[in-house]
Target: RNA polymerase sigma factor
Amino acid sequence: MSIHDTGPPVRERQFTDLFTATYPAVLRFAERRVHPSHAEDIAAEVFVVAWRRFEDVPTHVDDARAWLFGVARLTLMAGMRGEQRRQALGVRISEDPTAHGHVGALDADLVAWRVDLARAWSRLSAVHQEALALTVWDGLDAPRAAQVLGISPVAYRLRLSRARKALRAHAKALPQTPATRAVTATPRGSSA
Model:
């Protein structure tokens, strides 16, 4: 059964299923790019567009999620100017919700590593930040991340490779601590 079967009750049910399956990911996507108080508004605008253009939404849930991320990205860009736009596109590493899962004594090396990573991240261009964020935080493969950015998968893979290289270079440029040495010693073929 396709998510595009005809009839209002069917469409409403299908939209509800789409919303249920993708809303948390769309909200997280927005939260990493704007202040959390605005993320729900962005997510709501994305789903208004999805409702209006429901026939354009891909039928596979992962493809639909990437399509919604693209709508979210365009919505964010439409409302931002200058430095505000750059900050909205930047992912706030310090606010990464998965980093707060380890409660207890804080490891000094882990704290130093996070600070070093945040510094290296802040030195990346918005283009490199976005390429890394789509893969690392949003979990998109190259074709879907490319769809979000409106580029080819090959161009996305190249952009991602350059972003990883730039992140490593910025991390190496920082004062070396035991935690930083571990990050910069990452083998060439591994993921950043």
